[in-house]
Design goal:
Elements lengths: L7 H34 L12 H17 L38 E4 L5 E4 L1 H5 L3 E9 L5 E10 H7 L3 H4 L3 E5 L6 E5 H4 L5 E6 L2 E2 L9 E3 L14 E5 L19
Parallel strand pairs: 1-10
Antiparallel strand pairs: 1-2, 3-4, 4-7, 5-6, 5-10, 7-8, 7-9
Length: 256
């Protein structure tokens, strides 16, 4: 067998390439370490648990600007036949649903008007609005999804019925559970999308307690963290309302 011999010129070439590769590797390693230290020590946005590092929040805010700029209320989420809906809907959280802190007999939906007045509605008041059914693929940030069937009144119909046009002209809606343990902030275009409902039925039956009885939000253009269960109050503002998961470092917009 013929012996393979590397001449000096070829050897120098490989040594030079190896040296360059090691320099690039350690430079990238140093850059990554420096970047990690910068982000880890960067000021936070002040939310619960310290919030999110401001550079990361700025990236999420930029994503929100892009996605909200592309959003159209005319774009509908895909719907499915009712036969495709899961017989038992999966539960994606229980914050704000402590049964010991909830009295269903005294529950009222409290809507805070722009003039400071409070509109108090019963579940029967909500049921007087046209009923709307939506069967869609409910998506959770935990990585699972499920086709589910929900029924209730369109949020946009509530606005029309109770002359909340001034409030709907603001940028955001805030919602919270009666015990105020869970709360969300939602951009107005998303919540006025025609598939967004104040939901009181699941699979044609009253909402179970663990799904937010007596009334919850279903907003198909958002991930599940925005679908607040057991709505206690609704408010309107031109500044971002508090948001439970955004305060813990998640994306505020959470759109699909």
């Amino acid at each position: 067998m013929k012996e393979f011999v590397v001449d000096d010129k070829t050897a120098k070439k490989y040594r030079r390439k190896s040296l360059i590769a090691f320099i690039i590797f350690f430079a990238l390693l140093a850059l990554g370490w420096t970047g990690w230290k910068y982000l880890n020590n960067a000021p936070r946005d002040g939310g619960i648990r310290g919030g999110l590092q401001k550079p990361l929040r700025q990236v999420l805010d930029l994503n929100e600007e892009v996605y909200s700029g592309l959003f159209s209320s005319k774009r509908l989420v895909k719907e499915y036949p009712r036969s495709k809906a899961a017989p038992r809907a999966r539960v994606n959280g229980d914050v704000g649903l402590d049964p010991s802190l909830f009295d269903s007999a005294s529950w009222r939906l409290q809507i805070l008007r722009a003039n400071g007045d409070t509109l108090s509605l019963t579940l029967d008041d909500i049921k007087q609005l046209p009923r709307y059914d939506v069967v869609f693929n409910f998506k959770c940030i935990e990585g699972w999804s499920q086709i589910t069937w929900w029924s209730g009144a369109r949020f946009s119909d509530l606005i029309k019925k109770y002359h909340l046009e001034k409030e709907a002209g603001m940028k955001y809606v805030g919602m919270a559970t009666p015990d105020e343990e869970y709360y969300v902030g939602i951009d107005m275009p998303s919540i006025m999308q025609p598939q967004t409902i104040l939901c009181y039925q699941l699979n044609a039956q009253p909402l179970p307690m663990n799904q937010g009885y007596p009334l919850r939000l279903i907003i198909p253009v958002k991930y599940g963290v925005k679908h607040l269960k057991r709505i206690g109050t609704i408010s309107f503002s031109n500044t971002r309302p508090p948001d439970y998961w955004a305060e813990r470092g998640y994306d505020y917009y959470t759109g699909l």
